[in-house]
Amino acid sequence: MVMMDRNMDETELKRIQWRCRRGMRELDQLFGRYLRQRYPRSSEAERVLFLRLLDCEDDKLWRWFMGYEECPDVELAALVRIIGALQP
User: Is residue 55 part of a domain?
Assistant: First the structure.
């Protein structure tokens, strides 16, 4: 479960959790791990960046996270590396 901070209400968190459900086990696990471990303490800028990442197509996300392609957006590529480095 993700612990909320003062700036995040329960409805918003549930909406983001729903957006993290991709139907690909690997992506679901990566995004779930990020929500639990980092999102609650992340800056507003990183949260906005994460929402941009969630707007990307699943096949692109999978290739980026699996290392088959480099994300062309420098900021998103940095977040992909951060998420990929989180421990289970």
Answer: yes
Nearest Cα neighbor of 82 from 39, 44, 20 is 39
83 CB burial (10 A radius; 0-12, 13-18, 19+): buried
Is residue 2 in some structural domain?
A: no
Instruction: Indicate which CATH number applies to the domain containing 60.
Output: 1.10.150.250
Residue 59, Cβ density class (10 Å: 0-12 exposed, 13-18 middle, ≥19 buried): exposed
Cα separation, 25 vs 8, whole angstroms: 26
From 16, 35, 24, 18, select the one nearest 63 (Cα to Cα): 24
Say if 41 falls within a structural domain. yes
Q: What is the pLDDT of residues 23-52, one digit of tens each?
A: 999 999 999 999 999 998 999 999 999 999
